[in-house]
Design brief:
The protein is an all-alpha fold. The protein has helices at residues 3-14, 34-44, 56-68, 77-83, 92-98.
Length: 117
């Protein structure tokens, strides 16, 4: 989900009486599998990076080895579990009540560049 879409949703909900007192799911503009999201992200990098998939037991072993070597320290069991969990949310109520219209997931190489001072 794009931060501008989230900000637009917050401001729209503030002025839409139908939204008062309600909570909403505000997902991105399209439903993607985690794999598809990663694949799009890797494809936009310069040079593009190929996605390599491993069977779960081999991935888990590689993760433990990377963590033991001091790498992938922020990627624990909970994060891996989230990657494998369906996280689909219904944006229809937000669309109906305050016109929520998020953009599709279109990563670009610029998103991954280090900002210059």
């Amino acid at each position: 989900m794009h931060v501008d879409d989230l900000a637009d949703a917050a401001f729209a909900a503030l002025t839409a009486p139908a939204s008062f007192g309600n909570t909403y799911a505000v997902p991105g503009g399209e439903t993607l599998s985690y794999r598809d999201m990663v694949e799009r992200t890797l494809a936009c990098l310069r040079p593009p990076v190929k996605l390599v998939e491993l069977p779960s037991p081999l991935f888990n072993l590689a993760l433990v080895a990377a963590q033991a070597a001091g790498r992938a320290t922020g990627l624990g069991e909970a994060a891996v579990r989230r990657m494998r969990t369906d996280m689909t949310f219904d944006a229809a109520p937000a669309r109906r009540d305050f016109g929520y219209a998020p953009r599709s997931f279109q990563p670009s190489a610029e998103m991954f560049e280090t900002p210059r001072d």
